[in-house]
Prior knowledge:
This protein is of the alpha+beta class. The chain has helices spanning 3-16, 24-30, 35-46, 50-68, 73-79, 85-96, 153-167, 170-177, 237-254, and strands spanning 130-135, 138-148, 185-191, 199-207, 217-221, 224-232, 263-267, 278-284. The longest helix has 19 residues, at 50-68. InterPro entries: AraC_E-bd, Cass2, Homeodomain-like_sf, HTH_AraC, HTH_AraC-typ_CS, MarA-like, Reg_factor_effector_dom_sf, Tscrpt_reg_AraC-type_HTH.
Amino acid sequence: MGWVESIQKAINYMEDHLLEDISAEDIAKAANSSAFHFQRTFNILTDLTIGEYIRRRRLTLAAHELSLQKCKVIDLAYKYGYDTPEAFTKAFRRQHGISPSEVRKYSGKLKSYNRLTIQVSLKGAEPMQVKILEKDRFKAVGVKREFSLENEENTKGIPFMWDEVHRNGTNDLLAKLNNGQIRGLLGVCVDQRAAKEQMIEYWIAVHYNGDTPEKLLELEIPASKWAVFEVHGPMPHAMQKVWKQIFSEWFPSSGYEHAGTPELEVYPHDNPTDPNYYSEIWIPVK
């Protein structure tokens, strides 16, 4: 099954089970992927989390039902996965701008989110600066947190972790320790599904040769073939743009697949808001 087909198959699975209580793990299995990697790919391609997509689609279908049929709000609330009519009404108003009870007498527009179809651009109009290299295993030292994939806790928690590392000075300590070949702070995701269901580890670390300092942890990055992408421009927009190009253009046309081991974002010790800021994305490939 090709890369695009696998993503579309997972979207079809979501649509076929839209009224059921499905997990990220269930959805990812349809794409023959881990929950973390599918969540990340889906978010990069659509600018939506899985939860946001499902919520928008359910509320779109609920609005159609209300406008075409005589149905009770309480029945729709339970049908579309809400514990109370009040919670359903609040979410409905947030999406459509009106309450469910106002739909039948409303002559304006309701916000409709249609079923997704993945279309991949293979034009490559903007050149991507990428090199393929092989690197032996190496050690990184830093701090880590565990995040649950349930309710997409990882997408909310990781930005807060970065804020904390900058506030408490950990980033300055790591910058001083950075004596390996990869220069800069590393953002590293480690899929923990084999050990702990629905969990990932996220590390903020640096490439380091030497004994691990107190209060820091060490992580071994396995030997890999890496696709290393250049990122030019201020954070976070430049990084987000290149991630989108990687999944919408490079992977479908390159013949490579993600190897499933940790990927790296590399942030050199410069001003990340500088228009000329340079950073990198390292993806293990096979």
